[in-house]
């Protein structure tokens, strides 16, 4: 009989989902609700040794600041003397990177992902948060095919907004221009097809 690994009498840890330099991510289950979760296990001693404890604290602060349907939810943070555990939403659809690698996305699907991405980014920026590590591997898909941004490890809290109260970044400008271009193209296509 296989021994169960239970954390703090609350969560059962299962198979390894992935690993990075300082952390491993496991599939888990909330014992009270049966909900599937992801558990990110961080080696506290290694993080301290590398002087990255502030980065971990910042990631926790950022994730608590940005509750959004298109951002992976941090449910709870637990710790022992040697480990830090991030209990997070389990996103079962995998990376957007893997989906794109299989072939071209249909335009309506790409538009949906782009709208979800810009919605999440706009929300982050409204809260003074900049992700700083956006790449296809950090864009996950849930079971409904909705996009979720993950890995806020390198994020920054932008304490100082400009005088007008807005966050001005080149990335935000680029995203807004792309959004405008896509919406304009869709609008023009509708006009053209309605006159055929």
TrEMBL record:
GO terms, molecular function: ATP binding; protein serine/threonine kinase activity
GO term, biological process aspect, one: signal transduction
SUPFAM superfamilies assigned to the protein according to its UniProt record, in alphabetical order: Protein kinase-like (PK-like)
Domain Protein kinase: 11-196
UniProtKB keywords: ATP-binding, Kinase, Nucleotide-binding, Serine/threonine-protein kinase, Transferase
One Pfam short name: Pkinase
List of residues binding ATP: 40
UniProt KW Nucleotide-binding keyword: yes
Signal peptide interval: none
Function: CIPK serine-threonine protein kinases interact with CBL proteins. Binding of a CBL protein to the regulatory NAF domain of CIPK protein lead to the activation of the kinase in a calcium-dependent manner.
Family: Belongs to the protein kinase superfamily. CAMK Ser/Thr protein kinase family. SNF1 subfamily.
Name of the protein: Protein kinase domain-containing protein
């Amino acid at each position: 009989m296989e021994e169960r690994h239970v954390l703090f009498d609350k969560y059962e840890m299962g198979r390894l989902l992935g690993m990075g330099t300082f952390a491993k991510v496991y599939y888990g289950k909330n014992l009270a609700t049966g909900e599937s979760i992801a558990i990110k296990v961080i080696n506290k001693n290694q993080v301290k040794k590398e002087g990255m404890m502030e980065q971990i604290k910042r990631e926790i602060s950022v994730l608590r600041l940005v509750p959004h349907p298109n951002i992976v939810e941090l449910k709870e943070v637990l710790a022992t003397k040697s480990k830090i555990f991030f209990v997070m939403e389990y996103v079962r659809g995998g990376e957007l990177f893997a989906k794109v690698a299989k072939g071209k996305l249909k335009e309506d699907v790409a538009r949906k992902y782009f709208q979800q991405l810009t919605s999440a980014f706009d929300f982050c920026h409204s809260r003074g948060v900049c992700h700083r590590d956006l790449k296809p591997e950090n864009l996950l898909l849930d079971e409904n095919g909705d996009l979720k941004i993950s890995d806020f490890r390198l994020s920054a809290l932008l304490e100082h907004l400009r005088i007008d109260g807005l966050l001005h970044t080149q990335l935000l400008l680029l995203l807004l221009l792309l959004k405008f271009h896509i919406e304009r193209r869709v609008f023009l296509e509708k006009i053209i097809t309605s006159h055929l």
